[in-house]
Structure formats: C-alpha cells, structure tokens
Amino acid sequence: MSLVVQKYGGTSVGDAERILHVAARIAARAQDGNRVVAVVSAMGNSTDELHELALQVSQSPHPREMDVLLATGETRSSALLSMALDDLGCSAVSLSGAQAGIHTDAVHGRARIADINTTRIKQELSAGRVVIVAGFQGISEELDITTLGRGASDTTAVALAASLNADACEIYTDVAGIYSADPRVCPSARPLKDIGYDEMLELATTGAGVMHSRAVEIAALYDVEVLVMSSFDDSMLGTVIRVEATMEQASKVRGIAHQNHIAKITIRGVPDRPGIAAELFEPLAVAGVSVDTIVQNASVEDLTDMTFTLNQSDLEAAVQTVEASLPAIGASEVVTDADLGSVSIVGTGMATSPGYAALMFRTLHEHEINIELISTSEIRITCIVHADQVANAVGALHNAFELDRED
Amino acid sequence: MSLVVQKYGGTSVGDAERILHVAARIAARAQDGNRVVAVVSAMGNSTDELHELALQVSQSPHPREMDVLLATGETRSSALLSMALDDLGCSAVSLSGAQAGIHTDAVHGRARIADINTTRIKQELSAGRVVIVAGFQGISEELDITTLGRGASDTTAVALAASLNADACEIYTDVAGIYSADPRVCPSARPLKDIGYDEMLELATTGAGVMHSRAVEIAALYDVEVLVMSSFDDSMLGTVIRVEATMEQASKVRGIAHQNHIAKITIRGVPDRPGIAAELFEPLAVAGVSVDTIVQNASVEDLTDMTFTLNQSDLEAAVQTVEASLPAIGASEVVTDADLGSVSIVGTGMATSPGYAALMFRTLHEHEINIELISTSEIRITCIVHADQVANAVGALHNAFELDRED
Q1: What is the pLDDT of residue B209?
Q2: What local confidence, expressed as pLDDT, does residue B258 receive?
Q3: What's the CA gap between B214 and B216, in Å, rounded?
Q4: To probe the interface with B, which of A58, A82, A117, A120 has the most B CB atoms within 10 Å?
Q5: Which of A6, A112, B55, B138 could form a disulfide linkage to A38, CB 3.0–4.6 angstroms apart?
Q6: Is the pLDDT of residue B247 over 60?
Q7: What residue ranges do the domains of chain A occupy?
Q8: Does domain A3-174 have CATH number 1.10.1740.10?
Q9: A90 in B contact zone (CB under 8 Å)
C-alpha cells in the first residue's frame, strides 16, 4: 500500500465546488488502495482578506496574533475538505499543524520547522482515514500557533513527505507544472518533464513562483521527488523535481525566469576604503530593507559607484536610510531607478559554459534591450532590464535557447 | 488589583470599527489597574456563514469537522482584538479554548466543560497581559477541538470567572441588560436592576435569549454574580444576575418571556393504558424531535387526547413519526397546529401565589386571546397562544403586572 502526500493550493480549494472536486480526486486515490495525506492552503484569496482585516484594527499587527489569525484560513479548508470526503463515504480527519505534530521555532510569520512528530498522523492512517493537514502552520515550544511564511503549504507537504517517508509527494496547483518560462508572458512556454532541485530553486527565487523555495530546499535535503501538476487538467503529466535532471538535459538552459517590481539605487562618489560596504548596508538591514544584487564599479581616483537592487516597495525606506548615511560615508549623490525588472536563464553547468552568457547578452542586444546590471550564480545568469522590456526579453531568450522544443 | 472576566458578543465585535471600540474599553479597564480576561464570540453572523459553507460541501457535515470549522470564527475575533489592544499600547495575548485550558467531553457540537486548567491564563496575567479567550470552544481528551453549542461564549466566560475566582463577570451585548419583556415586542419594557439565577434561567429557556442558559446554570452552581450590559451604551447600568433578587422583589413577577415558531400536535382517541406515553414519545426521541410541553386530557370511555408542543421546524418529522406509530397505539387521528407561540410570566414565589395565574388568565381573556395550552414551573406560568397574538399578549401582561414601573 503506497503512502501519498498531496498538496492542494488556494485556487484548487477556492470554493465549495472546487473542494468537492478535490475531495473526489482524493477519494478515488484512496479507493485505489493508497494511504493519503493531503495538505491544503486557505481558500482562494482569503489570506489577503485576513491581512486587510488585520490592518483595519492595527497599524502593525502583532506577529503572534497575525499567525493566530492567518492560520484559521488553512484550518477552515482542512475541515471543509474533510467533511466533503466523509460525505463521499471516504473516512477522513482534519489536523491542524499542531495536531499533525509540526513543531517550529517561535519566529512568527516565518517560522522554521524544527521537527515533526508523526504519531497522530500514523495513528489516523492506520485507522483507515485520509488525513487532511492544514498547511502553512505549526506550533512553537510555547504551544503558540506559528506560520511558516507565504506559500509555505508546499513546505508542509514536502516536510511531511520526508518525515513519513512517503512513496510520492504531489503538489497540485492551477498550472500544468514547472514551465520553461511564465506562459502569461511567453506563449510558447511549455511544461518541463523534470527539473533538478538547484534549477528549481533558482526558478523559484527569481520569480517562477510555482513552488515555495523552502519546500524545494527541504526536498533536496531529504531527497524527496516532487511531482508538480494541475488539479484541474489530468491530461497534463506535470513536472517531476528530482535530484538532477537526466543526463541529456544537464548543461542546458532549462528555463527563463523573470521578476517585476525591482528598483535600483546607485550611490555616486563613494570613497573606496575598507568597511565602506558595511557602513552602507548595515543601516539598511536594521531598517528591514532586503537588498538583492550589489555591484561595485572599479574606482577612479579612489572614488567608486555602488549600485544595488531591491524590491520597489522598499525603495522609499531605503533612500531615506542611505541619504542619512551619506555625510558619514562622504559619498556625493544617490540616484534611483524605480521601474526595473529582471530576466534570468537557469540551467546546470552554466558556470562552465561561457557560451550561454554570450548568447544571452547578444540576444538582448539584438532586441535593443539595455542591460542595467548583471548577476550570476553557478546555474543562473540574471540581467536587470527596464520594466517595460521584461516580457520582450523573456520571449526573445526563450526562443534563442530553443525552449519551445520538446525535451 | 481586581480580576475581571468580560465577554463580548458577536454584534460587539461585528466589524473592525467595533473591535477597536471594544479594545478601547478593555484598555481603559486595564489602565484602571484591573487584570482583564475577555472572552469573544465570532464576528457578526460569521458562524451562520460557516454553517452555510459546510452545507455546500456536505449534506450532513461531520460533527468533529464542523467544530474545527466553527471554532475558527472565535479564534479570528480573539486574534483581531488582541492585535488591536497591542496597537493601543495595552499588551495582550489571544488564547484558543485549548490554550486557555478549557477541557471538555468529546460530544462535538454541544460539548460540556469537564475542567479548566488556568495555568496559562494566570501566567499571562502575571506577565501583565490582557488575555483574550476565544469563546465557545474547548479541547477534548483526544486533543480534538470541540464547541460548546450555539451562544456558548457566555458559558466560557462564566466558567472562567468561576475557575479564576474573578472579582467580576461582565457580559457585554447589544442590549442594555435583561429586560422585563422583549423591547422589540413591548415598547414599555425596561432593563431590570437585578434578577435571580432561577428567574434568569426561565427567561433564557423561554425565549428572552440574552444569555445562554448553561452559562446561567454554571453561574448559579458556582455563585458567580454576572453583570449583563450594553457594550454600546455606558449610560445604562445593566442587570446583575445573582443568587436571589433583593427581598422586596421576591414573590413578584419579574419579566414576560415569549417564544415564536411553536407547533402543536394533538393525538385523538389514544387508549388510556400504561406505557402509552413511552410508545408515543420514544420514536420521537429517536427521530431527534425535541418535545416541549405535554398535556394529557382526562379520559372519556378509556380514550384520551394527548397534546404536545414542539419547534415548528420539527413538525414534519414529528407528524411522520407519530403517524407511523398510530396503528400500534390504536389511536384514531393526528391534528396539528403549526402557527403558535408562547407567553410566560416569570418570578420567584409563583407557585405559592395563585393570584398570579388568575391575573394572567384574566388579562389574556380580556384581550380576547385564546389559551391553547398551559404549563407551569415553580417560577413560571406559560400559555401557548396563536402566533399572531403573542405580541399583544406580551404587552397586555407587561401592563397588567405593572412591569413598566421602577423596581
């Protein structure tokens, strides 16, 4: 008898009709002789609505209470899905994060799983029940409710699959798998058959967005093969995320990721002396500004320019912080660009194949797309470009790297 | 330093603005040097909405899952109220029923409190925090979420006040206290200064509806004085429910209660032999029909008529059940009246003062209100009348017993 851990996202349980659809899927799976643990997200955009409600009663909602509030979303879907299954004659039980034994640290809003005590889940499975686990939530040592961060129901599912040593881990979403690029931006994008953990991680953190990056990290760490597929369309086979792509696909660009809402800050005339970076970035960290790529130009007459990118929403706070630091640092000027995005090519073996970078830059040049900033990792090259050229860049690169062709 | 247990109903926390209003009230009370434990209901009619949602995914929602679903309503208000208090600079913490140590039996949907472990509440109070407890919910020995039944946040509050040996227990609602009659029906009704537990219990069970009857029972059992008052209008002093009304008010009609949606079933020609009542009512109990007043007429030629009242919503099921029993019983006919209501006078010492009954019947007669059925208790006389005469009866009795005058 196989043990399957599934996860259904917010769109898949968005209303009563969809919950019934998911229940039918799970019941069929259970009737095929599988033991099923299903992790659910909150219905539709209910998490956003709870966020808004919180901001109506508090300017800066207490993180502990925000977790109590938000966790109710997943709890509701878990109860509804469980009662729908019971109605289909498929015995089921809903468990909160706490009941499912998901113990976390006490960092509210982005808690990390410390360990999972699967006793209750195993007990319910042995009693022949389908177990519905409220995703995204856990419990701290102080017995307080914690949440694992936005989109972290994926993390719950993968962590449970690892703890239970499940035979399969399936993430059901509203798209057909991991695409070679965002199909809303690039119509010729197609779902990949498989992808490596590292590649998936780069796609997730640079904006492909289908899967929570911590879930991918845990999958890599515990070697959990994850199938990502649509809960709406069974005809699509989905994408398997596994330890590495098949041999033929190693050393190949696998996907194009992109991100919007990027801003850039350049500080001109920074004295080129040791410790200057710390003086600049420590106050930003204190102000809670998360900095992405940092570039420092070669210095001319002991003065240099320092540029970094950040999320558009942090721009105002960052400029204020940097301007306050200017006199102490002795820099001359702050220049900002609020209207940027990024485009990345992702694939293993990138660092050892300089031809990829050359093709990327040439393609962008041919499409008259100016590159504002470049950053690279072992398996990724990212170019910062103007916001209105992101979609164009994604399409051009998808074409240049022949990603519309079958694997 | 006084310890105050408060309870705020669904209307009092119906939206963000009202939650902020309640937070301000609690903060003021805490700043006056009181330790405050506040129990909250779910916002507005969110419990009804969750019920409807459940019925969209399941014809008969599993009681365990229904409890998981419904309990999220109170959990949300508790988190929102707690974050609103923090924002006002008043340190607060929300606790679920489980965290508040409210242990119950496992009868989902109408669990009873087994015991309360106040360790965590006391710990939070000692740390200088206001404690917000999600009402209506508890936890079973199996660590499953239970709910205590509709309106049971009152019960949570009174039980906590008893366990914590609180100096005051205050139930905040959308009316100014316990009225001498329902003010929507009887405009001259006025809030009572105080009322005895038994009287309150009769008012609660015969439709005054301001307070959950189990809460009144617990208050009586543990001798908790309960103040019921409006959270919207501080100018009204509210009603104190206590061990007995003051001497002057004993042996006096204190209030007029009424109920709508009552139906009546009469079974004609029932053979007057032992065990006939059991044969008739046991199948009704099995069918889940709750029977109120039962009247059996004196028999004529060994045949009697048996009449009982019930909720209108149970009428159809009850008639089917009774008709199925007719052949076995040998009764001749079932007659129903679906359109009734009740009016009651409530006050201690009723049984020893026959003048009250006489005045009640005379008053109804003078207003040409026909009495369909009469039932009495130590402190209550109830007449079943036609639905369209209920309001008229309440007004007439309120006037006849001079309840519009000051205590």
Answers
A1: 63
A2: 92
A3: 5
A4: A58
A5: A6
A6: no
A7: 3-174, 256-400
A8: no
A9: no
